[in-house]
Specification:
Elements: E1 2-6, E2 11-13, E3 25-26, H1 27-32, E4 47-53, H2 60-74, E5 78-85, H3 91-101, E6 105-110, H4 116-126, E7 131-134, H5 146-151, E8 158-163, H6 166-169, H7 172-189, E9 201-203, H8 204-207, H9 219-229, E10 234-239, H10 253-271, H11 286-301
Parallel strand pairs: 1-10, 4-5, 4-7, 5-6, 8-10
Antiparallel strand pairs: 1-2, 2-3, 7-9, 8-9
Helix pairs in contact: 2-3, 4-11
Length: 302
């Protein structure tokens, strides 16, 4: 099931699961049910923010402090998990200091660089809240873009942000690669998702029922397609991105081969996935959590 949110009209349209009723509610109406922070009300759910970073000492502190302010303004119950992914600069030390200065913040370190996918899984293993979202330490998703995403939490099983200014913040080559990747996944899996790498908000109990095998950039594509094949609902939220990467001017053969390899593995993984194994309306499974913890610990020590 799909929902759509329009920041311009401040309306969340579609089927909203609340008190077992279907609804088509505007922001003021949602506020009456305390599902969004309006007039001092907090979102009636908890969220874990996983914030990995690699050698981001120059921007990390400002990014984390901005995220902390936005999360605290929306959620009464939250945590921010900082993950130093094998940095060689002062990123880890900055994280440790922020964990002592900011509320609900803790820091952990990977012994060496594991990549976004593995760091995401380690954050999932550590998460203590109902929902989980990853935000990278480079500030590619600006804190100012978070409120409409947070406002949609609980309206569907998955909240998928898509970048409305992607063409402006990516180099022509990176934009072309991103659109090609998205279109290919949609064709292969019969979806119409606007952006697969938009750092969605997921229910932790659903994530812990999955075996996530992708460790590179395709990990969110794997998660999204598996959960949607299981019948999970989603809503897409358009927000502005801030990544100003311009360091790629040509398609490298190695990069193209890597994308082709990742796509082939992703297709294989999703095609053999049985969506019936995901139970949407059950309490968290302690055994599944223990399995994730074991895999995360193994990856961190490898």
């Amino acid at each position: 099931m799909r929902l759509s949110y329009s920041p311009a009209t401040s309306t969340l349209n579609g089927y909203y699961s609340m008190d077992n009723r279907a609804a088509d509610l505007s922001f003021p109406e949602l506020a009456k049910h305390k599902t969004i922070p309006a007039g001092g009300a907090f979102i009636a759910r908890s969220i874990s923010i996983v914030n990995p970073a690699l050698n981001e000492e120059t921007v990390l502190e400002g990014v984390v402090r901005d995220i902390s302010k936005q999360v605290a303004a929306s959620f009464m119950h939250y945590e921010i998990i900082l993950i130093d992914d094998g940095s060689t600069d002062k990123t880890g030390d900055i994280m440790d200091r922020l964990a002592t200065q900011l509320p609900n913040v803790r820091s952990i370190r990977n012994r060496h660089n594991l990549g976004l996918g593995s760091s995401y899984q380690r954050g999932l293993a550590e998460a203590r809240c109902d929902y989980l979202m990853m935000l990278c330490g480079d500030g590619g998703m600006p804190a100012a873009s978070l409120p409409p995403i947070f406002a949609a939490v609980g309206s569907a099983d998955i909240v998928v942000p898509f970048i409305t200014n992607l063409k402006q913040i990516k180099s022509p080559v990176r934009y072309f690669t991103s659109r090609t990747y998205t279109n290919l996944l949609n064709i292969l899996f019969g979806q119409k998702i606007k952006y697969y790498n938009g750092l969605p908000v997921h229910r932790v109990d659903l994530l812990r029922q999955l075996r996530i095998n992708s460790t590179g950039f395709a990990f969110q594509g794997e998660i999204l397609t598996k959960l949607l094949r299981s019948g999970c609902s989603m809503t897409e939220v358009g927000v502005a991105g801030a990544e100003m990467t311009r360091n790629s001017s040509a398609l490298r053969l190695k990069g193209l081969l890597n994308i082709a390899k990742v796509l082939a593995l992703l297709v294989w993984e999703v095609r053999r996935f049985d969506g019936r194994q995901i139970q949407r309306d059950v309490r968290p499974n302690p055994a599944a959590h223990d399995d994730i913890m074991d895999r995360a610990a193994f990856a961190a020590e490898a």
